[in-house]
């Protein structure tokens, strides 16, 4: 009897994903979707490598990070082309991004010893017999989950500092820019061939979640606020600490004595560069009524010259994520429905994944275009009667990443009153480019810091060490403590702390 062949039901398990160019739609790469067991094996390798890496001295690690830096410098053209093909930004902007990342990498390697090395601290009057010191050992293995919008600068804010602090790193780049991540990890492997100190995982949310559950000693997350909340929830299962670099709705303030042309230039670059897909992008602007009309005219004139198109010939490229185009459209529509006016662009500027600059005025503060991260080349400009009002409106946001202030007389006072992680006075985003300054947000923009000394300490733990130099004449922490000692302590406490009551 001939057996009827059983038709097996095809079960397709996705083991890889394609990356498509947002400018052309062409497939530009295919990468594996790493599973939970891949993640576990990678973290296990990192655990071994972390012990070797941590055993090196600061100068030995710095020398290896310098070699990695050289690899990146030599490959800048190739890396910039890869950024361009995967996420669409113009090559010259990609090169600028790489240059900025190199500045931070150099700083981290050079300063780790000074910031994290053991240092003596004074003891107190009651503990004079103790020598006290503090040092900052590495955590062990750090997982870094990155976004696509600055696929070198942003993840390296965590990766470079975690490595310089002595940790091994497992890096999962965005599924939109895995090739950039792979390039950086391969370059590190050439510079540091001894052990897999920096490794790559590719995939989307599930791979990221597996990394959160893998037992790494910290997750450095950069991405949207919504995903940040999921990452925190997953990390809570294993009490894995997290650094959260999340979204923003940054504002630019223009006072009546500001240099209007310079303010407009910063507003246009801050709002439109990278097609507005910058966590620190200027999305809303508050302008003193005395200079409002002149400022709007200047911004519109400059923005009208910026065209989104095929990156080689344009100042700005496409919107990287197809789903973001709908968000941008919804925010513009909401602003217009609520009484706003488009003085440049508007809904008709959205064509495929290219969005032309849009400048909106008279938009109510309740509109999505003012309250939510748009992540597109749009600006809202609002007229205010004074700087107190401007500050109040800026601080009304649930986000608190960065801000820019254009002013003369009261610039510093205004900057101090804004509740954000960084403020640039008379220049856009300078605080993110100065290596010795910390970068990060408050509120829904996240917590923790990359860059600067704080960024190094973020990937360590503070360890306190005391050494008894001689037995204390006042034996306090012993059952042999006498009544006489208690009386001396009572007198000492009064002398030291009792004079505060008036
Ligand atoms: P996203 O939140 O969609 O993704 C970020 C990363 O998280 C990706 O690698 C993604 O694969 C991963 N991920 C998604 N779901 C996950 C899950 N459940 N568990 C673990 N990992 C998960 O963000 P994006 O679209 O890639 O980036 C844009 C966002 O990033 C914007 O909101 C922007 O403001 C923000 N951003 C912030 C900073 C900063 O310094 N604060 C810098 C750059 C970008």
UniProtKB/TrEMBL annotation:
Source organism per UniProt: Antrihabitans stalagmiti
InterPro entries found in the cross-reference section: Ald_DH/histidinol_DH, Ald_DH_C, Ald_DH_CS_CYS, Ald_DH_CS_GLU, Ald_DH_N, Aldehyde_DH_dom, Aldehyde_DH_NAD(P)
Gene Ontology biological process: aldehyde metabolic process
Domain of life of the native organism: Bacteria
UniProt xrefs under CDD domains: ALDH_DDALDH (cd07099)
MF annotations from Gene Ontology: oxidoreductase activity, acting on the aldehyde or oxo group of donors, NAD or NADP as acceptor
Family: Belongs to the aldehyde dehydrogenase family.
Keyword terms of this UniProt record: Oxidoreductase
Domain Aldehyde dehydrogenase: 16-465
Protein name: Aldehyde dehydrogenase
Keyword Oxidoreductase appears in the UniProt entry: yes
Record-annotated active site: 245, 279
Oxidoreductase listed as a keyword: yes
PANTHER family in UniProt: ALDEHYDE DEHYDROGENASE-RELATED (PTHR11699)
């Amino acid at each position: 009897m001939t057996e009827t062949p059983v038709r097996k039901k095809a079960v397709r398990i996705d083991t890889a994903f394609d990356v498509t160019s947002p400018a052309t739609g062409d497939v530009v790469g295919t990468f594996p979707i790493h599973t939970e067991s891949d993640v576990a094996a990678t973290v296990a390798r990192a655990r071994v490598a972390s012990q070797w890496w941590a055993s090196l001295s600061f100068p030995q690690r710095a020398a290896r990070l310098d070699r990695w830096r050289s690899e990146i410098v030599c490959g800048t053209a190739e890396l910039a082309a890869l950024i361009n093909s995967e996420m669409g930004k113009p090559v010259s902007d990609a090169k600028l991004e790489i240059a900025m990342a190199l500045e931070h990498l150099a700083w981290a390697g050079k300063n780790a010893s000074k910031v994290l090395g053991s240092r003596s601290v004074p003891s107190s009057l009651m503990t004079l017999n103790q020598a006290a010191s503090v040092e900052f050992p590495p955590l062990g293995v750090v997982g870094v989950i990155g976004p696509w919008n600055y696929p070198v600068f942003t993840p390296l804010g965590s990766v470079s500092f975690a490595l310089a602090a002595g940790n091994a790193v497992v890096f999962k780049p965005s599924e939109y820019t895995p090739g950039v991540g792979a390039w950086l990890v391969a370059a590190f492997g050439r510079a540091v061939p001894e052990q897999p100190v920096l490794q790559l995982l590719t995939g989307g949310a599930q791979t990221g979640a597996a990394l959160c559950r893998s037992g790494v000693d910290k997750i450095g997350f950069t991405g949207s606020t919504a995903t940040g909340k999921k990452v925190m929830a997953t990390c809570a299962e294993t009490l894995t600490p997290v650094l959260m670099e999340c979204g923003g709705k940054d504002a630019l303030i223009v006072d009546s004595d500001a240099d209007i042309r310079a303010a407009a230039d910063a507003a246009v670059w801050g709002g439109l560069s990278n097609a507005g897909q910058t966590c620190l992008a200027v999305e809303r602007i508050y302008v003193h009524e005395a200079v409002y009309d002149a400022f709007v005219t200047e911004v519109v004139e400059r923005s009208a010259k910026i065209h989104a198109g095929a990156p080689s010939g344009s100042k700005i490229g496409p919107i990287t994520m197809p789903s973001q185009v709908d968000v941008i459209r919804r925010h513009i529509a909401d602003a217009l429905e609520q009484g706003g006016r488009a003085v440049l662009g508007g809904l008709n500027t959205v064509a495929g994944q290219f969005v032309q600059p849009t400048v909106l005025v008279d938009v109510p503060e309740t509109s999505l275009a003012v309250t939510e991260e748009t992540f597109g080349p749009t600006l809202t400009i609002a007229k205010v009667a004074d700087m107190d009002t401007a500050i109040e409106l800026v601080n009304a946001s649930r986000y608190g990443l960065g801000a820019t202030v254009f002013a003369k007389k009261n610039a510093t006072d205004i900057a101090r009153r804004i509740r954000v992680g960084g403020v640039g006075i008379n220049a856009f985003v300078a605080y993110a480019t100065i290596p010795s300054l910390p970068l990060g947000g408050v509120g829904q923009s996240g917590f923790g810091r990359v860059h600067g000394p704080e960024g190094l300490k973020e990937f360590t733990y503070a360890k306190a060490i005391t050494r008894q130099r001689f037995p204390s004449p006042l034996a306090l922490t012993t059952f042999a403590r006498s009544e006489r000692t208690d009386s001396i302590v009572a007198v000492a406490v009064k002398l030291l702390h009792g004079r505060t009551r008036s």
